[in-house]
Amino acid sequence: MPRDTIFALSSGSGPAGVAIIRLSGPAAFDSATKLCGGLPRPRQMGLRRLRDPADASLIDEALVAVFPGPGSFTGEDVVELHVHGSVAVIRHIAAVLGEMPGLRGADPGEFTYRAFEAGKLDLVEVEALGDLLAAETRVQARLAQIHQQHLHRAAEDWRRQMLELLALTEAGIDFSDEADVVTQLDSQVERDIAALMAQMRAAAATFSHAERMRRGFRVAVMGPPNAGKSTLVNTLAARDIAITSPIPGTTRDSIEVHLDLGGLPVTLIDTAGLRETLDSIEQMGIARAEVAAASADLVLWLSPDDMPAGDYSAPVISIRSRSDEMSHQSRVEHAGLAISCHTGAGLQDLIGLIRKRAESALMNCQSDMIVAHERQRRAVLDAADALDAALSCPEAMPELRAEEIRRAVRAVERLVGRIDCEEILDAIFSRFCIGK
Ligand SMILES: Nc1nc2c(ncn2[C@@H]2O[C@H](COP(=O)(O)OP(=O)(O)OP(=O)(O)O)[C@@H](O)[C@H]2O)c(=O)[nH]1
Ligand SMILES: [Mg+2]
């Protein structure tokens, strides 16, 4: 049975200047021809009038591009219709395509799934693509585009090295009556296995770095009530996110705001002001503030009267807030950072300080290759554990060592999705939405 041809809106939903509807599958060219009259040459855009085949009425004027399989993203025949980003136009085209034989709307992630099935992307690349589509800051895009590409290449390299080690180990089995040859081979193989294992363990350790890049650099804004914490969070986010008021104890819940600070993902956490209180809800808010501080990478301690900061596991920047209320004399004499959200004084310095800290926390990974997902980390560690087991096999049992190396190869094959991936595919592709 021929497989379905799928279609979906692959750009964001309208209204917009342009919307891209993508078709993939054996009926893509025929269906698009019915809409467009004729198709442009492969990989060249052509201007076409799209007409409803039912009554030849004009739907839209569009730029059309065709990508014949197997040299396309999905490996199948692909057509892209670059139409005006009008909800009416998009709906009309979807209705017309839905009526055509062999065509149906794509499921979430189905284009990418077909690319994976056709061997255009391995599983690491699929995950990287998902991360790129979800990236909100340059650092996060970099994680997807550069670091995971390195992992994709490293995985191929690891597998190649393992197969060589396997071949050498098996050669040792064949030569097992020639003791000299075997001993020489063994010590070389052991050194190589140990080096590969160390490399893979180091790679797995980069996962914590990826997590930080994904969740952002966490900054808890702490201090006594009325210090101006919520006002600062609103000012830095340039949005009215948290309620501010002259009543001490306004903020109760911890509120998280995601910022893009010059390409760096930073999460600001507004918290309840710290004080002794009998109000049970405020007490809960203060407990939440302490939790936020404990999970933060940096604490901004705000106080309008230089109250000393509490003890935190994260580094603390102490800031004198509401500096516009200070006398001229005390402002001149004040040694540390002072800010005012009313006049904007000191805010650029503060942003600079946060950026510097975020940059050194997010960009200090020594390795180009980063293991970005728990699934990837598990597979890399499984492979390293198998290599460890291969190393501790008794010398007299090279068959056992070969079996452990084969186990390591299988773990790397799971990493890239060559084997055993059925049960994890759903989890991975469910992160994608329709049209991707
Ligand atoms: N003069 C002056 N007033 C400020 C400044 N920042 C905030 N305020 C005022 O200080 C009061 C308290 O501000 P908030 O931002 O609600 O303070 P908070 O630290 O979040 O307070 P809690 O949520 O109660 O812990 C409000 O009336 C603000 O308008 C500032 O830079 N200068
Ligand atoms: Mg507040």
Q: Tell me the name of the CATH class of the largest domain.
A: Alpha Beta
Q: Strand order within the widest sheet? A: 3-4-5-2-1-6
Order of helices and strands: EEHEEEHEHHHHHEHEEHEEHEHHHH
CATH superfamily of the largest domain: P-loop containing nucleotide triphosphate hydrolases
Q: Write down how many β-strands occur, each being a DSSP E stretch of 2 or more residues.
A: 12
Q: What small molecules does the structure contain?
A: guanosine-5'-triphosphate, magnesium ion
Structural class: alpha/beta
CATH topology of the largest domain: Rossmann fold
Shape: flat
* Major β-sheet profile: 6 strands, mixed
Radius of gyration: 29 Å
The total tally of domains equals 3
Distance between the termini: 25 Å
DSSP helical segment count? 14
Q: Mean of the pLDDT scores? A: 91
What share of the residues does DSSP label as strand, in percent? 15-25%
Helix content: 40-55%
What is the compact description of this entry?
The protein is α/β, with parallel strands linked by helices and 436 residues long. Helices cover 47% and strands 17% of the residues.
